[in-house]
Structures are given as structure tokens and as C-alpha cells.
Amino acid sequence: MKRLINKYGAKILAISLGAAAALSLMFIISGRNASIGEYARITVYGTETETFNLSSDIAAYDIVTKNGLNVLEIQNGAARIIYADCPDKLCVKQGRASDTGRRIVCLPHGVVVEILGGSQKIDAVTR
């Protein structure tokens, strides 16, 4: 019985280590392909309200919705929500966004800040 446990334990350990290595490699590769965005597009309940260039610093831009207030800051090529009057403040906790495709979302207020633009380097094309 002990021999069976050792045999299967070694296989489980090998599979776990292989999966961990594959996940680590995936994160390294996906992080390398990220590109720096050029614009921050603000949508409220699915309607675009404003677009800002990330190269221009904005200390505070109020995003007022029917459910509350978010305050956007653009500084050093990144956007972030610095204040929200929603109960959980998850949008504030998401931090700075500068990579193309990254989003900051405030569900209670229906606000989405999406980073757009920038050129992404492509390593390979598959069919």
C-alpha cells in the first residue's frame, strides 16, 4: 500500500510542478506583449463621455453619474480613479492603468475607464 502512495504521489507532484511552470511561463509571455496606451476612454453606462490623452496630466476630472461620483487622475502616462463614493471602492483599489486594453471599472456607478492606442509587438501569428 505504501508503495502505491509513493508511486502516485510522485506523479501528482510531477504534474503539479509542470502545471506551475506552464502558468509561470504564460504570465511572463503575456506581460512581455503589453503595450503602453495613448488614450483613456471613459464610458458611463455604455455611452462614451470623454477621451483623454495619457501624455497630458490631469489632476482631477469628476465623473458624475446618476448613482454617484468618481474622480479620475491622469499622471505620468497612466490613469487611475483617486476617489469614489461607492461603498466598496474597488475602482480605487485597482490602481494605475497604462497598458493598452486595461480597464478600471466601477460597477455601482456604471463607469469604465479603458486604455486605448499604442502599438503592440506581435511575436508570432498562428492560423
Question: How would you portray this structure in words?
Answer:
This protein is α+β, with helices and mostly antiparallel strands and 127 residues long. It has two helices and seven strands; from the N terminus they run αβββββαββ. The chain folds into two domains: 33 residues; 78 residues, mini-chromosome maintenance (MCM) complex, domain 2 (Sandwich), CATH 2.60.320. Strands 2-1-7-6 form a four-stranded antiparallel β-sheet, with no helix packed on it.
Short description:
The chain has helices spanning 2-32, 90-93; strands at residues 39-44, 47-53, 58-65, 68-75, 78-84, 103-106, 111-116. It has two domains: 1-33; 39-116, N-utilization substance G protein NusG, insert domain (mini-chromosome maintenance (MCM) complex, domain 2, Sandwich). It is elongated and about 65 Å long.
